[in-house]
UniProtKB/TrEMBL annotation:
Originating species: Treponema vincentii ATCC 35580
An example molecular function term from Gene Ontology annotations: DNA binding
GO cellular component, one term: protein-DNA complex
Keywords of the record: DNA-binding, Transcription, Transcription regulation
Protein name (record): Transcriptional regulator, LysR family
Keyword Transcription: yes
InterPro entries found in the cross-reference section: LysR_HTH_N (IPR000847), LysR_subst-bd (IPR005119), WH-like_DNA-bd_sf (IPR036388), WH_DNA-bd_sf (IPR036390)
Domain HTH lysR-type: from-to ranges: 1-58
Keyword Ion transport: no
Highest taxon in the source lineage: Bacteria
Lineage of origin: Bacteria, Pseudomonadati, Spirochaetota, Spirochaetia, Spirochaetales
One Pfam family cited in the UniProt record for this chain: HTH_1
Coiled coil: none
Length: 289
């Protein structure tokens, strides 16, 4: 008895005809018919009732198909579990709500998990990151707040560690009407034309929602955006982290934004069941702060 025969039996039980079942398992109808006859011979019982123009599972055939489904599912689950275990051994994957903490965490993780491939992904919503952590897509995620959910036994579902802070400022030409202000709010930029990168995680939606009537001139290439910012008189954005790597262009000033939504604390979050596995990483993060 071969696994492919069990898949074929399950397909027939699901689709009800040899032609459709053959199509779904990528074989010909005559080949499927012979395969089912061989399966019956090996089991020593008829699984199908056959007439000139009709074929259907017998009561025993239905039972056989149910058991075949269990075997096929167990086989597929085993392959998935083994491959996932191998992926976890070879890779460290994390998702982030913003680019800067992703840039900061990657080199730390590389030093801790020597020999592993470090993979990162940027998301705009925390919900998608939490789903990814729960389903195993990510080993760790970076959020804007800690998760306090409890398991049924009252213990914490997640372990959360404070990471870096990031604070947004608007970059203005010294001749701009707002350039002499000590602080601004996003709404003060209403109606402005603003340069912005379109792959910046949660920052993108916050700026879009909080600046009414603004025209956003979007760039997908970060290097191109930096060149335009240096050459243009249009307002753009900078943070305390990006400012440390890129000096404020000549003739411009960075005005801090006071909105709480753009002065944020990031948190590293993993499943509590994996806390021991990432203990060295959390220690390295503490040393980085």
């Amino acid at each position: 008895m071969e696994l492919y025969q069990l898949r074929q039996l399950v397909a027939f039980a699901e689709y009800g005809t040899l032609s459709k079942a053959a199509e779904m398992v990528h074989t010909s109808q005559p080949a499927l018919s012979r395969s089912m006859q061989n399966l019956e011979a090996e089991l020593g019982v008829p699984l199908f009732s056959r007439t000139k123009n009709h074929i259907a599972l017998t009561e025993v055939g239905v039972l056989a198909a149910q058991h075949a489904h269990v075997v096929v599912s167990a086989h597929d689950d085993m392959i998935g579990a083994v491959r996932e275990a191998d992926r976890r051994l070879r890779n460290f994957s994390f998702g982030s709500i913003a680019p800067a903490p992703m840039w900061e965490l990657a080199p730390i993780a590389s030093k801790v998990f020597t020999g592993k491939t470090i993979q990162s992904a940027l998301q705009e919503t925390e919900a998608s990151l939490i789903r990814g952590l729960d389903d195993g897509t990510y080993n760790l995620i970076i959020l804007l707040h800690p998760l306090e959910e409890k398991k049924s036994d009252g213990t914490s579902r997640y372990i959360c560690k404070a990471f870096i802070r990031e604070e947004l400022s608007v970059l203005l030409p010294v001749s701009h009407r707002l350039a002499k202000q000590k602080t601004l709010q996003l709404q003060d930029l209403a109606g402005e034309k603003l340069l912005i990168h379109n792959n910046i995680g949660f920052w993108y939606s916050v700026c879009k929602q909080k600046i009414p009537g603004a025209v956003f001139l979007e760039q997908s290439e970060l290097s191109a955006l930096r060149e335009i910012v240096h050459a243009s008189k249009l307002p753009s954005f900078i943070t305390n982290i990006t400012n440390s790597a890129n000096a404020i262009p000549h003739g411009k000033v960075a005005i801090p934004l006071s909105d709480p939504e753009v002065n944020v604390q990031f948190w590293c979050v993993c499943l509590a069941e994996n806390a021991m596995e990432y203990q060295a990483l959390f220690k390295a993060i503490e040393g980085h702060l």
